[in-house]
Structures are given as C-alpha cells and as structure tokens.
What we know:
Number of strands: 2
Number of helices: 14
Strand order of the largest sheet: 1-2
Main location: membrane
Organism: Marinitoga piezophila (strain DSM 14283 / JCM 11233 / KA3)
Order of helices and strands: HHHHEEHHHHHHHHHH
GO cellular component, one term: plasma membrane
InterPro entries: FtsW/RodA
Largest sheet: 2 strands, antiparallel
Strand content: under 5%
Helix content: over 70%
GO molecular function, one term: lipid-linked peptidoglycan transporter activity
Amino acid sequence: MKINVLKSRALLFILYIGMALILGTFFVYSSLNAMEYTFSSAQIDRMFQKHVMTIGISAVLGIFAFLFSSFVTRGKHLMNALFLFFVALLVLALTQTPINGTRRWITIAGFQLQPSEFMKLYLPLYLSWYFYKIKEKKNTFLYGIVIPMAITILTVGLIFLEPDLSTSLLIFFLALLTIYINGVRNIHFYLTIFLLLVIGVLIFLNTDILHGYQQERIEKFKNKEENYQLQQSLDAISNGGFFGSGTFIGEEKYTVPYSYSDFIIAVIGEEWGKFGIIMIITLYFLISRELILMSYHIKNQAAKSFMVVFAFWIFIQSFVNVGVSVGLLPTTGITLPLMSYGNSSLLITIVSIGYIMGMVFYEIIRNNPEKQNETQTNLEKVEKIDEV
C-alpha cells in the first residue's frame, strides 16, 4: 500500500510540474511579445527560442540526474567536486563586466548563466549529502554546526558581493533549514541562530551594507506611488479583473518592465485575472505539498532532506515573486519558479526535479520484492565503481 501511495504522489507531482512548465511557456511567450517597445522582434524570437531550448537541455540533464541520483548520494568525491565547481563559477562571475551594476552572470555559448541560481538548490543538496555522510557526528558542534555554517557563509558571502542581497538571504535561509531538519542538536542550532541575529544587528547598525540600488528599492517600497514598475504591474492586474482579459490579450502588460521575468505575475493577472493568480499560487502549494508527502516515504535521509527544502524553496520563492508584483514586498529580482524567463533558474530546478524523481523511483523498486535483488546488485556495482 505504501508503494502505491508513493507512486500516486509521484504521478501527481509530475503532472503539476508539467502544468507549470506548459503554463510558463505560454506566459513567457506572451510577456516577451509584450516587450515589443524594448526589444526588436528578432530579439524576442531569439529569447523565446532560448527559453524553449533551455527546457529541452534541462530535461536531458534532468534525465541524467534521474539515472544517477542514487550514485550521487553514495559517491565520495562527486559532490565535493561539484561544490568546488559552483564556487569557482561564483568567483568567476565576480570578475565579469557589471550588468545593471551587478556581476551575477557568466556568458557561455550565447547563454547567460547565473551561478547563484545553481546554489539556491545545490547548497541544500550538498549539505543534505554532507549530513548523510557524517551520520552521528552531526551531534557534535564542530561537524553539526561549524563546518556546515562555514560552507554556507562562503557561498552566501560570494553571492552577497555580486551584489545580490535577496538571493543571498534566501540561500542562507534554505541552508539553515537544511541544517535544522537534519537533526543537529537543538541547543547548538538555537545558540547559533541567536549569535547570528546579534552579529547581524550589530553589522546593520554600524555599517552601510546596502548598495544604492537596494536602498532605492526600499524607498520605492515605502512610496509605492513613485514605483513605476509596481504601478504598471498593479494596473495590469487591475485591468484583468477577476477572470482576466484572455490569453495573449491585454494592454497594460506592454508597459510593465521585465514582465517576462520578475513581474510575470502582471501578465498572468491581466490575461487570466485574479482567478489565474490564485490558481498559480494553488499550483505551487500542491507541488510543495506532494514533495512533503513523498518525503515521508523516502528512507534515504539526504533525499528526504532535500525534498523538504525544495518544497519550501518552491513555495517561498513563488510567494516572494507574487508579493513583489502586488506590492506586499520590495522588489527583489526573484523569479517565479518554472514559469519566469531565466535559463539558470529553469535548468537547476528541472535537474533537481530529476534527482528527486530518481530517488523516488529507487525507493519504489527497492521496496518491490520482485526487483529487490536486481536493485541490490545494481547498487553494489555502483559502489564498486565509486571505490575504484
């Protein structure tokens, strides 16, 4: 019965992810075409083609993540090598020519990649693997708190230097959540949180840590009527009413800056109305819910931990994106998962989903008496390869 429930959850999860990708493709197409006063038609076509290509490339990489998910968890060196690789990308990004005052992107073969997007989900995965490897050592302060916090601070510090405050804060929260749910001693965790809060307050009060554009965003949040991007977003959502103007229909979306990425909710709100926004929020809730419910059936602690953090990431990032678009939160630059235009975010999200579904699949066949012996043989082969 347990396996049947897990299969049903997995199928529902795949269905919800497919719906998000299909809807996102429509929204990206519509929002890019609404940028006709900013981009040429050739640029718009090229950007949409890149979006579709990214989905295809991500799907292929997601299949590899699915096939090698068990090996990733059991491997001794792969995760460390990938972590060093992503840290190197963060360092490389800091050497690039600034774009809009920040150094977040690396251009490879015409594609702009944002290493910090990879770290949103790779750092929780890496920490989950780390705790899976150290086992009972996590009860000590050194292994349970000091080492994972050092890894987190290194990563977050590089992202903060780009500068990217919102992403660094989100990744820091996800890392703390990963540390907490992996069962470190409560006294160690709460003491660390207290010290971090004290240090954070002292730094904030005694130094000017916010850059000019970040202070400007806060000022615009305080004076919403002076925030052009927000006002255009609200006008578009208002123009859509409750049920919307219709797919690919609408006038206000043409005046919303960056509607294809940060403010895609404005396009959704005008075309599908407030009902559409509620539907999208519900879809993200269902995706997160299925992840949490599936995690109950997973024995592999690294996979279980990552699934829970991934669920929180999906819901928090979608909530922040919607909150920014309707004026509940200051502008952050955080995209809508699976639906906004953004090569790096889309790629790492789909690859992470591939890894999760791989672990679910291995959990199903591992508990299937008919395939248990076959699975054990395959796992032993993987372990032997890794030892070599």
